[in-house]
Amino acid sequence: MIDQLLQDLRSNNVRIWAKEGRLHFDAPKDAMTPEVLALLRGNKEGLLRRLEEGTGQRPAVWEEMPGGEREPGGGVRLKRLTAATDGLVVFVLPPAGAGPSLFHTWAADAPEGVEVVVVHAPGREDRIDEPPYRRVAPLADAIAAAVDAYGDRPFVVLGHSAGALIAHQVLMRVRSGRARLLVTAASTPPDRVVGDIAAMSDDDLLAAMAAWGGTPDQVLEDPLSRGEFLPCLRADLEVVESCARAEGDIEPVDVPVLALVGAEDTFAPLSESLRWARWSTAGFQAYVVPGGHFFPATEGAEILALIRRHVDGPVPGGI
């Protein structure tokens, strides 16, 4: 029964693993139905025993990722979703509280010759028991070191929401001249960061997550799930607050900025996202993309096509 349950979970892209006597899981939004959560709770002990025996440790959604995971040191790992022997590398930084699985569909969305690599920081998914970063400086140092060590190919750094603030700091640190573009998705710049979000009560933070979208209601309402992701989310929000800059305190990067805005995103609307223009000395363009605050999870094909068009410089179109 447990083996069949594991097979059914994987067929629905539910990631499940055991670590230090605890059951962990993650999945795309539409997979976390009340029935799935009930199955996880009702079969917790049997799943733990089976997973600890070594069966099912690698979720199917990850098994097709060529190259697997690389850990260059400094506390961050790199999940390679697509492989290319040469050409452009797109490094992706997830939003607060999220990990590489948010972008699992990008493995099929990437155009030929584009390698997509997602930063996997401690504190989330199968690294949930590792202490997360709480300040941007050491996190950006570690990511920049990983990017510098990855190879000698041209690259783009894309950050989703909080990830864009970190991406900006990464590009302030990379040593190579191979950077081609900073892509800010669903994000406002550092001088628009508001503080004290990390200090919210659990109830207020859960209400904020519900308003942001991207997290299934069933997960927000499940005590096991909340206990898994809230500590990491709070730590990530502390990272965000450490990115804050005063009005007029601008640290521009010397690569173009491409700002992507969700058409229905009320948290990073076009009027705010356009303020990223002051954060580059090399040019700026913006595009409106279908969706809300979590549009990068579903619009990978359009995003990667836009990146490929702009990597060699501005092109007609956009804002």
TrEMBL record:
<dbReference type="InterPro" id="IPR001031">
    <property type="entry name" value="Thioesterase"/>
</dbReference>
<dbReference type="InterPro" id="IPR044894">
    <property type="entry name" value="TubC_N_sf"/>
</dbReference>
<dbReference type="InterPro" id="IPR029058">
    <property type="entry name" value="AB_hydrolase_fold"/>
</dbReference>
<dbReference type="Pfam" id="PF18563">
    <property type="entry name" value="TubC_N"/>
</dbReference>
<dbReference type="Pfam" id="PF00975">
    <property type="entry name" value="Thioesterase"/>
</dbReference>
<dbReference type="InterPro" id="IPR041464">
    <property type="entry name" value="TubC_N"/>
</dbReference>
<dbReference type="InterPro" id="IPR012223">
    <property type="entry name" value="TEII"/>
</dbReference>
<feature type="domain" description="Thioesterase">
    <location>
        <begin position="90"/>
        <end position="305"/>
    </location>
</feature>
<protein>
    <submittedName>
        <fullName>Surfactin synthase thioesterase subunit</fullName>
    </submittedName>
</protein>
<feature type="domain" description="TubC N-terminal docking">
    <location>
        <begin position="2"/>
        <end position="53"/>
    </location>
</feature>
<comment type="similarity">
    <text>Belongs to the thioesterase family.</text>
</comment>
